[in-house]
Known about the structure:
By secondary structure, chain A is of the alpha+beta class. Chain A is built from eight helices and nine strands. Helix content of chain A is 34%, strand content 18%. In chain B, helix 1 packs across helix 8, helix 2 packs antiparallel against helix 3 and helix 7 packs across helix 8. Chain B is globular and about 50 Å long. Chain B: This is Ubiquitin-like-conjugating enzyme ATG10.
Amino acid sequence: xxxxxxxxxxxxxxxxxxxxxxxxxxxxxxxxxxLAPRIGYLPLLAPLIKPYFSSTLPPGVxxxxxxxxxxxxxxxxxxxxxFDLLCPEPERPWNITVHFRGFPGNVLIPCEGEDCVKWSFIxxxxxxxxxxNGNCKNVMNMSQSDQLELWNSIMNGNxxxxxxVSSKHKLSTVDxxxxxxxxxxxxxxxxxxxxxxxxKTGKVPVRLYVLSIREDFDDLDEMPLVDSWRDLLHxxxx
Amino acid sequence: MDVLxxxxxxxxxDFRVGAFAFSQKWESLNSGFPPWVxxxxxxxxxxxxxxxxxxxxxxxICISRPNEEDIDQISQIDxxxxxxxCPGNEDVIDDATLVQSSHHELHYCDxxxxxxxxxxxxxxxxxxxxSDGRPLPLDxxxxxxxxxxxxxxxKSKWTFITQEEHPYLKxxxxxxxxxxxxxxxxxxxxxxxxxxxxxxxxxxxxxxxFSVVGQMFGxxxxxxxxx
Lengths: 238, 227
């Protein structure tokens, strides 16, 4: 529980620069400083970011997207994961560039707004449910209002609301059948004679992102910049 | 493996075996379609993979249907024997020919059958484009699909077709969501009173699967099951 609360309360300070091609008035606007929740998605920050830059944008339709050092950021990966993957030596604030035009549709999946992000989240949830239960029934059978409540809890960083809905639909930790086997071992290694609390282990579905680096380096801040998503693979498992 | 207790899923190795069986059967059906090609590819080329990884590919399939409005207009203007799509015919009124050529642009589709290690079933990835290569968005693709598919789509748009990154090509493609596949495939095989052995199921798996999902695109798979 503690770990989950810790992650939910985590945030990444962002310094968001408007891309030079989108600046129509000089001097260029200063970057926006935004605290982004780790459990969140970059496009959801649009309502916070737009007011900073709306006066300098060229006319046209806005489709927000971001890049870090020229690498377009996959919007369906949570902000915290993106940061950990691309910036292992943490950059504070994290300097990223925002665009409102020229969406790279051949590289990034289109994101027309909050609804797109929500459905991407629901699809990830289905995948997680499938890994846990062998089927997605619990997610498919969720009422519209529960789906909305779950999504809103993510958007607002409301862990309690999230836990309320997720446990109702059996989306919490999966009980580990090895719990009882673990217990005697724990007693021996810890040398404790009075273990009244049941050591309960559980399993959670994870999506593992692995970035391959082909060059050697000594320190994390010497890590070569990621310039393509080619070297990223992810796998979902439990 | 006992088919009665089978959960409808495949291992990665089963998928490869099934894929080869499918592409062979497809060719022998002589349906007028080009063959399915196995594309050798790896999701992580920097890891020495003990097994061959890849996916099945069928590309540049024409899926566009003549616009229904055009057919009505043309049949109203033509009183008699002129066939639709006969541009060389001098008797066809210019307006009708123009109407047809401006609306009836050819649309093509690429299909890839990719194995999902999470859902342990094949997944159909597809993308559609015009003859000049311009990719088509979902609402335009929908117009090319048979009417019943459009109905399904409008009922549950996002749970049925999703746009995701192709696992090998790393570009946006559309896919048919695989979450119900294992269940209906299992029903399909269990409804066969002959209760086939798993080896037979594996041979027929992809053919049976595609005969269902292909219908979404109006691709009928003619086949006879030989037990």
